[in-house]
Amino acid sequence: MTSVSDERGARSSRRRATNRAGIARFVVLLFVALAGTALPAADRDARVITPANSPIELDPLRAFLFDTPLLTVWARNRGSSPVSYALRIWIFQANGALKGTLDYCTGDELGGSMRGRVNIPIDIKGVTLRDRAVVAVVRAGSGRSTWALSESDADQLDSARRAANGSGSNLSFDKQDSRAVVPWTCPCECPAVQAACGLTCPNGAAAFTCAPFGGTCTASCSCK
User: Fold this and answer.
1) Which residues are registered as beta bridge partners of 70?
2) What is the pLDDT of residues 162-186, one digit of tens each?
3) What's the whole-model pTM score?
4) CB atoms within 10 A of CB 191
5) Could you tell me the CA-to-CA distances from 9 to 17, 18, 114 in Å, in that order?
6) Residue of 114, 118, 113, 152 lying closest to 135 (CA atoms)
7) For the residues of 125-167, what is the DSSP string, one character each?
8) Do residues 168 and 175 touch, judged by C-beta distance below 8 A?
9) Phi, psi at residue 47, to the nearest 5°?
């Protein structure tokens, strides 16, 4: 009787050990599956252009293009007063051809001496991580002061292409001061932006979007 009881006890112990091992394997597999869903999207560095005299500085070490596609960049207010600003993104193919552009303007202010992250969905057709992204500050406003690029759109494109290739850029801001406070606006003049889109793309535009919403504006141009 003792030997039979011992054998039954041994079989029961083996079943419990087997069950515990099965549960452990399930937990491990579940953990791996959940960890896989939490992995961040692939990304590559984006280039930034901070024009001379700009009140906003873009961080060259914290600008990335994700394969969603989305561009994220950190901005810093160099002064003590709140600043509103607008950005422009150029997407270049690996051979240097322009794939598209995107203008992003928001009514939110960046407080004095503050930093902030900007996440911009890229509504340009066919963007991949083989492409190169360049982002620049193109306009800013604070109180009675406004800043705008002194270069033409063609010169801005040339500067962005040099930045995409790893060379320096030479964009600069012209500052204008007024007697009264200048309200910050994000003009979403879609017909004008669409016309400029056709001129920017060497072979014409393949698609165009313009999305005004709550004082903000996002306008993108996809090249053929």
Assistant:
1) 66, 121
2) 999 998 888 999 999 999 999 998 8
3) 0.81
4) 8
5) 12, 14, 69
6) 118
7) TT--TTSEEEEEEEEEEETTEEEEESS-HHHHHHHHHHHHTT-
8) no
9) -90, 145
C-alpha to C-alpha distances, 3 to 6, 13, 17, nearest whole angstrom: 5, 15, 21
Domain boundaries, the chain: 1-39, 43-223
Which phi and psi angles does 219 have, rounded to 5°? Answer: -130, 125
**What radius of gyration do the chain's Cα atoms show?**
27
Burial class of residue 76, CB neighbours in 10 A (0-12, 13-18, 19+): middle
The three-state secondary structure class of 196 is helix
Residues 204, 212: Cα–Cα separation, whole Å: 23
Is 80's pLDDT higher than 70? yes
Torsion 52-178-102-106 (CA) sign: positive
Backbone phi, then psi, for 7, in 5-degree steps?
Answer: -65, -45
- Strand 56-66 to 84-92 pairing: unpaired
Q: What is the largest CA-CA distance in the chain?
A: 105
Tokens encoding 44: 């590559």
Is the pLDDT reported for residue 2 higher than 50?
A: no
Q: Residue 118 CB: number of other CB atoms within 10 A?
A: 18
What would the pLDDT profile of 27-66 be if each residue is shown by its tens digit? 333 433 444 444 356 799 999 999 999 999 999 999 999 9
Mean of per-residue pLDDT scores for the chain: 86
20 pLDDT exceeds 90? no
Show the tokens assigned to 86.
Answer: 């607008």
Residue 196's pLDDT band, with cuts at 50, 70 and 90, is confident
Q: How far is CA 15 from CA 21, 25, 40, in A?
A: 10, 15, 40
